[in-house]
């Protein structure tokens, strides 16, 4: 994934909603409770962890039971220390006290709460990239250093792998063609990191790598779920059982085609917020719907030029909501002017934005009826809104608007099926279209005619378009 091309825009919940979600996550709630519990008698070891003697009391406080109770309490304590909910008073004595960040959870702004939660997320993501403790102990030498080579584990590669998986999950969630709020099968997510995009049938070796990645991700998503970044349905334990250990007794029928048995993961609204924050920090362009609401019309039209249709409409609606309709229409029209390569798409987006504005905008559209760049879209808007006395466009304006529209579609969609249908329709409806089109005084005339020659399936008509493009380019060179 390139950090230069923008990602699809994400629709985030409000900070107030996200802060409430953060406070209700099991891990942050436990960390806060331990921070309030910590006092003069609480002791930590040299690494900042609770001493073993106090883990049972911490687990009891948190209502944790079972064989993982002490480990879960230790994890919550580590988050409390890492996020500043607990601060170390004296390292040599091992004493602690409630940290300054604890007050942010009760009296801070939603942004303050989310900042603490992001710290907790960083801790969990770091932990998720570490192999199990037993393996670490076995790989430790006499000096206390870990021999990573004996673990067959590369810390940086492991962290990059998890970051890549989460980035793919983010993309699947925000992409309009993806599952949206729905869960993603774990095998598909693992395969997205392992199987090359140009591979047809995966080899046995690749499938084994996917299976190994699934097992790693199963452990990692189980660890990450308590921080609220994902909702996770783990891999069915029966799939990992040794056949020799299975009893001969009757068992429930198993649907081998049930993909949910192999794990399902869904990014939560809080997870979307957290991953976007990490992507921004890493230098990626990760827009959110609403980012442009307080910007000018030029920023709106330029920014939404790469947005999917639904996201562009949502962004435009938020932008319009904060403005008086007539002033908004005038600002949009002013931003749509220009002879640069991006101008046709700006005018198309301006026209789409104006379709969301009511009749109050009519004076702004009438003001540009004689404008050579805006007069065409003004006539379209006025006609669609049932305005009277709309002057008919001249033939020159009709051809100019046609070239402008095709240029905008080329910029927005490339050689799409919709554009090919438009090109075929234009050539069919207008006799002598190319004989007149090459004379149109528009910066994109030659490019549009070349595209029409490339897209039209009729060889004779395509040749006419290419000849017209040559004439237009010759005319522009004079």
General description of the model:
- It is elongated and about 90 Å long.
- It starts with 14 loop residues before the first helix and ends with a helix.
- Helices cover 56% and strands 4% of the residues.
- The strands form 2 sheets. The chain has a 3-stranded antiparallel beta sheet. Strands 1-2 form a two-stranded antiparallel sheet.
- It has helices spanning 15-23, 26-37, 55-61, 69-82, 104-107, 110-128, 133-138, 148-151, 155-174, 186-194, 204-224, 237-240, 269-281, 297-303, 309-321, 325-336, 343-354, 362-366, 375-384, 395-413, 417-429, 433-437, 445-455, 459-477, and strands at residues 86-90, 95-98, 184-185, 230-233, 264-267.
- The protein is mainly alpha-helical.
Give the overall form. Answer: elongated
What does the radius of gyration come to? 30 Å
- What is the overall number of helices? 24
Describe the oligomeric state of these chains in a short phrase.
single chain
State the separation between the terminal residues, measured CA to CA: 43 Å
Task: List the uncertain runs.
Answer: none
Main sheet strand line-up: 3-5-4
Number of strands: 5
Beta content: under 5%
- Helix-residue proportion: 55-70%
Task: Please describe the biggest sheet, giving its number of strands, its sense, and whether it closes into a barrel.
Answer: 3 strands, antiparallel
Structural class: mainly alpha
Mean pLDDT: 88
SSE string: HHHHEEHHHHHEHHEHEHHHHHHHHHHHH
């Amino acid at each position: 994934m390139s950090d230069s091309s923008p990602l699809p825009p994400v629709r985030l919940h409000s900070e107030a909603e996200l802060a409430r979600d953060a406070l209700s996550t099991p891990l942050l709630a436990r960390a806060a409770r331990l921070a309030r519990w910590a006092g003069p008698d609480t002791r930590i070891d040299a690494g900042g962890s609770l001493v073993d003697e106090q883990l049972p009391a911490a687990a009891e406080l948190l209502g944790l039971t079972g064989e993982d109770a002490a480990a879960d309490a230790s994890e919550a304590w580590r988050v409390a220390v890492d996020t500043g909910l607990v601060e170390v008073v004296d390292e040599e004595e091992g004493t602690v006290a409630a940290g300054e960040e604890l007050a942010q959870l009760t009296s801070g702004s939603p942004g303050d709460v989310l900042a603490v939660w992001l710290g907790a997320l960083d801790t969990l993501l770091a932990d998720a990239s570490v192999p199990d403790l037993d393996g670490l102990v076995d790989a430790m030498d006499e000096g206390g250093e870990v021999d990573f080579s004996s673990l067959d584990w590369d810390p940086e590669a492991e962290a990059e792998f998890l970051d890549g998986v989460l980035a793919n999950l983010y993309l699947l969630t925000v992409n309009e063609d993806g599952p949206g709020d729905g869960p993603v099968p774990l095998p598909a997510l693992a395969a997205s990191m392992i199987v090359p995009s140009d591979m047809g049938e995966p080899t046995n070796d690749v499938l084994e790598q996917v299976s190994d990645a699934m097992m790693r991700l199963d452990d990692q998503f189980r660890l990450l779920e308590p921080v609220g970044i994902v909702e996770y349905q783990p891999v069915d334990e029966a799939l990992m059982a040794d056949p020799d250990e299975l009893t001969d007794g009757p068992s429930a029928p198993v649907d081998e085609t049930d993909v949910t048995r192999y794990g399902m993961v869904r990014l939560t609204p809080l997870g979307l917020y957290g991953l976007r924050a990490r992507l921004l920090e890493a230098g990626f362009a990760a827009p959110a719907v609403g980012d442009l609401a307080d910007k000018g019309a030029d920023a709106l039209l330029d920014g939404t030029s790469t947005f999917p249709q639904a996201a562009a409409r949502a962004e435009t609606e938020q932008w319009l909501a904060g403005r008086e309709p007539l002033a908004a229409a005038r600002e949009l029209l002013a931003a749509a002017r220009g002879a640069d390569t991006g101008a046709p798409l700006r005018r198309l987006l301006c026209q789409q934005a104006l379709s969301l504005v009511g009749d109050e905008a009519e004076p702004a559209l009438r003001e540009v009826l004689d404008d050579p760049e805006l007069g065409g879209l003004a006539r379209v808007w006025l006609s669609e809104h049932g305005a009277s006395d709309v002057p008919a466009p001249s033939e020159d304006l009709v051809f100019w608007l046609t070239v402008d529209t095709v240029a905008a579609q080329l910029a927005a969609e490339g050689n799409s099926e919709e554009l090919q249908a438009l090109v075929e329709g234009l050539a069919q409806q207008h006799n002598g279209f190319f004989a007149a089109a090459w004379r149109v005084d528009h910066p994109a005339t030659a490019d549009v005619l070349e595209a029409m020659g490339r897209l039209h399936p009729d060889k004779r008509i395509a040749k006419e378009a290419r000849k017209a493009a040559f004439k237009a380019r010759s005319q522009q060179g004079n």
